[in-house]
Amino acid sequence: MRRAKNLTLSPSIFLDFKVMAFTLSSSFITSHKLSFNLSFSTLIQRNHFVSTHLAFRANAARGQVAIRSALHKSIRSLEKDVASCCVFPKSLFISTPAYGLKKLENLVAVLLLFVQLASPLPLIPSAEAVLYSPDTKVPRTGELALRRAIPANPNMKNIQTSMEDISYLLRIPQRKPYGTMEGNVKKALKIAIDEKDSILASIPAELREKGSTLYSSLIEGQGGLQLLLQSIKDQDPDKVSVALATSLDTIAEIELLQAPGLSFLLPGQYLKYPRLTGRGTVEFTIAKVDGSTFSPEVGGEPRQTAKIQVIVDGYSAPLTAGNFAKLVVDGAYNGAKLTCTNQAVITDNGLDNNSGYSVPLEIMPSGQFEPLYRTTLDVQDGELPVLPLSVYGAVAMAHSEASEEYSAPYQFFFYLYDKRSAGLGGLSFDEGQFSVFGYTTIGRDILSQIKTGDVIQSAKLVDGQDSLILPNES
Q: Over the stretch 112-136, which tens digit does the pLDDT of each residue have?
């Protein structure tokens, strides 16, 4: 909402009113300062407005752009509309009746529509349009963020994008756009068939047979694209959802085969740190120490321990993930105490065991091929991370006590994202400020049951040991 100021209704009347912003998806909306200055000169002799002047001014962040309408014919037409619709009583000098105010509001709505349709300016950068749109496609689940982070073959990424678009279309209530969904699947199938050789060629030779089997199941197998296409034709949203999830899982498996290591070279000064050159899986066992219990599993009984599984991503945060994986292998988190806040479950600072490396802050911006180091992202300027913090169960390192340009050597936290406490675009106010290196994929429901004083009974690296490179192995 913006305020339009100095609207003169008569020689002695000034009104301050609110103007509704343009549709957020419009290409004409601006994040710059936007104001409308409307002035009306009155002539009491016919009890109506006889001249109208419209000035539209957009104050850009870098200088000011003044726009004055040169459409004189349109303005004259507006003047006639004003003269015909806004007839005020002679008592307007002292007070503005509801009648006049209603007419004025109608006029303002017409003027706003006129400006939006007539303005030739694309007033918002595309990055900010994505950020402020309520339909922004920032990943909202750990699985989605992890899938997008895989540095795979471009053709596979195009297939993935077409499939992910369907997941957004499925959220539309009532009449779902099945025609658009069908088009997306046909597009993905065409790419899969036409680019089969190049896609399979990007898989290492020793993994190609497995990749070929997965690829065949993606096209024709149970839960593949053909079955998804038929489910869409049947207009069964439940079947579409199941088939889509299966297809996306298969796509992720193929992409992981295409990415046996990092897609970029680490700066030489950072080779002294442990690094994870792929994915790892860490399993935590959380224990209650105050006699309370976790909610029972289906058909089970209340329990004093519960398991949480985290996928650690070295593709986007190799140093942070590597340091964390090494700490897990060394048993540094066994017995660690947990503290709960409204937004996070945090481990103790680890000062007693003097473990870990103080790794530089590491964040990979969306659309980039390598992480930034010792630099935060300016979300307000449209910079978004590949691994966003704004996901329930995101796992990130705390800041170093010495400098916010470095992560803490030991202390990490589970982020308890809550949309009700988020900012514009549903993003956390801390987005782009921490090194996120993974997501909770199993046991997310356990996070809300953890209380201050609970402990990590054990932490194990159950997958990904072969991707962990220690400094003395360089």
A: 666 555 554 444 344 444 444 433 5
Tell me the three state secondary structure of residue 161.
helix
- How much is the pLDDT for 349? 83
Rounded CA gap, 178 and 376, in Å? 41
Helix pair angle (72-85, 98-118), 10° resolution: 160
Adjacent-strand bridge partners of 440: 310
What is the distance between the alpha carbons of residues 100 and 160, in angstroms, rounded to a whole number? 56
pLDDT at 352: 66
Backbone torsions φ then ψ of 220, nearest 5 degrees = -125, -10
Which stretches of the chain drop beneath a pLDDT of 50? 1-75, 78, 82, 86-96, 120-135, 474
CB 218 within 8 A of CB 249: no
Q: Please answer whether residues 309 and 447 qualify as being in contact, where contact means their C-beta atoms are separated by less than 8 angstroms.
A: no
State the first-to-last Cα distance of the chain, in angstroms, to the nearest integer: 56
Q: 9-29, pLDDT tens digit by residue?
A: 333 333 333 333 333 333 333
Which DSSP letter does residue 267 get? P
pTM value is 0.70
Tokens of 166: 């369907």
Structure token pair of residue 369 = 């091929």
Cα separation, 180 vs 235, whole angstroms: 12
* Cα distances (Å, whole numbers) of residue 187 to 90, 159, 221: 66, 8, 18
